[in-house]
Amino acid sequence: MANDPIHQFQISKIVPIEIGGLDFSFTNASLFMVATVACAAGFLYFATSQRSLIPGRGQSVAEMSYEFIANMLREGAGSGGMKFFPLVFSLFMFVLTANLLGMFPYFYTITSQIIVTFALAVLVIGTVLVYGFYKHGLHFLQLFVPSGVPGALLPLVVTIEIISFLSRPVSLSVRLFANMLAGHITLKVFAGFVASLGALGALGIGGAVLPLLMTVALTGLEFLVAFLQAYVFAVLTCMYLNDAVHPGGH
Amino acid sequence: MLVTSAYAQTAPAAPETPAAPAGDSHAAPAGETHTETGAAHGAEHGGTFPPFDATYYPSMLLWLVITFGLFYILIKNVIVPRVGGIIENRQSRIAQDLDEAGRLKAEADAAVATYERELAAARAKSHTIAETAREAAKAKAVADRNAIEAELAAKLASAESRIGEIKAQAFAEVGQIAEETASSIVDLLIGGKATNDDIKAAVAAAKTGA
């Protein structure tokens, strides 16, 4: 089943662990979570260990990503949102590194697991809810009552606002998950065409050129998607955090 | 055919996507859908589309919490203060350098102003000196001219008085010469002696007549 496009998402146990009937095994997905964290943290740690006044290449990249997220958060949630900077920066670096690691052949893409992206989305929305109620108490519920809406329309608008709020963790997680999953399946399918057509003989090899070109093009596209989805995840996190910081003002 | 099996598996992946967010509760129906389509390769991975296989959710969540938690702690406690420090340090250094540059510029401006002022003072002084010198020279020239003019006038006056003297003397001598000449002419013309008094009277008459 070398051409099975689903096979790449298969989870296999490396160290079986079972506690209370639940499977907590260290799997290949866990391995790549560790690898993602090791790569991202190792890069950020060693690139900035010199603390140079004039940054080298690695330090430049680390500083650029830091300032990229800092500006994004400042624009999205104002200076009051800067206390969430470590969270947004961790999320961005984690998702970006996971997506990029997934581009290596035979590497596991942990962001193609809905449970992973959903957990990250719940973390974001949970932070918004907890901080929102902690900071503003019941005033946080103003979030669902936009100002300047006529009284007759208010129930409808509030319903829509609540539904839109509840759909946020869903859209946030599914967007990342579906993009990574679909991208990797498509890549694998076109790569599978190359192998299967190539097996058909001379004519097949000629025909295999087209899916090969497609695979090359898609690989480029997937790198773009890997970055773009990490960016979108971070931008939306900033927007949602803005609601926690300023519930009244949109 | 490998190609067709590949197609068969991609197809179900798309319609399931909307159902995905619901997580655990929807995992079962999603799994069912997959058991049908995944029958061809079901034996290999239990027939469940891996992302919706709830078996590994506890493991996934646990390891995600562990890894992401560690990552967050590292970012929060080490990376963010460090990178923030580097950037802040650089900005303060740049601000400091700008201040230093501003201070040096002010110093240079002050030096230029001093230079300009001293230059202007020196110019004014040199102008005064030149003016004084010119005035002095002019005064001396005027005095010299006056002295020379006075001297010339004195010389002119003495010369004129001498000329007058000589003229008067000459005139006086003219009478005597005329008398002598007249007496000689009379001698030659009429051979007689004219008296000195007559001649004198005649010369005097001619002089006054002339």
From TrEMBL, chain A:
GO molecular-function terms, A-Z: hydrolase activity; proton-transporting ATP synthase activity, rotational mechanism
InterPro entries named among the record's database cross-references: ATP_synth_F0_asu (IPR000568), ATP_synth_F0_asu_AS (IPR023011), ATP_synth_F0_asu_bact/mt (IPR045083), F0_ATP_A_sf (IPR035908)
Main location (coarse class): membrane
Subcellular location: Cell membrane; Membrane
Source organism superkingdom: Bacteria
Keyword Methyltransferase among UniProt keywords: no
Membrane protein topology class: Multi-pass membrane protein
Pfam families, per the entry: ATP-synt_A
Key words of the record: ATP synthesis, Cell membrane, CF(0), Hydrogen ion transport, Hydrolase, Ion transport, Membrane, Transmembrane, Transmembrane helix, Transport
One GO CC term on file: proton-transporting ATP synthase complex
Transmembrane segments: 29-47, 84-108, 114-134, 143-167, 187-214, 221-242
Main function: Key component of the proton channel; it plays a direct role in the translocation of protons across the membrane.
Family the UniProt entry places it in: Belongs to the ATPase A chain family.
Descriptive protein name: ATP synthase subunit a
Protein's organism: Neorhizobium lilium
From TrEMBL, chain B:
Function in brief: F(1)F(0) ATP synthase produces ATP from ADP in the presence of a proton or sodium gradient. F-type ATPases consist of two structural domains, F(1) containing the extramembraneous catalytic core and F(0) containing the membrane proton channel, linked together by a central stalk and a peripheral stalk. During catalysis, ATP synthesis in the catalytic domain of F(1) is coupled via a rotary mechanism of the central stalk subunits to proton translocation. Component of the F(0) channel, it forms part of the peripheral stalk, linking F(1) to F(0). The b'-subunit is a diverged and duplicated form of b found in plants and photosynthetic bacteria.
UniProt organism field: Neorhizobium lilium
Protein location: Cell inner membrane; Cell membrane
NCBIfam families: PRK09174.1
Keyword Secreted: no
GO MF terms, alphabetically ordered: hydrolase activity; proton-transporting ATP synthase activity, rotational mechanism; proton-transporting ATPase activity, rotational mechanism
Keyword field contains Membrane: yes
Protein name listed in UniProt: ATP synthase subunit b
Recorded topology in the membrane: Single-pass membrane protein
Quaternary state and interactors: F-type ATPases have 2 components, F(1) - the catalytic core - and F(0) - the membrane proton channel. F(1) has five subunits: alpha(3), beta(3), gamma(1), delta(1), epsilon(1). F(0) has three main subunits: a(1), b(2) and c(10-14). The alpha and beta chains form an alternating ring which encloses part of the gamma chain. F(1) is attached to F(0) by a central stalk formed by the gamma and epsilon chains, while a peripheral stalk is formed by the delta and b chains.
InterPro entries per record: ATP_synth_b/b'su_bac/chlpt, ATP_synthase_B_chain
Region described as Disordered: spans on this chain: 1-45
Any single Pfam family the record assigns to this protein: ATP-synt_B
PANTHER family: ATP SYNTHASE SUBUNIT B (PTHR33445:SF1), ATP SYNTHASE SUBUNIT B', CHLOROPLASTIC (PTHR33445)
Protein family according to the UniProt entry: Belongs to the ATPase B chain family.
Feature: compositional bias, Low complexity: 1-41
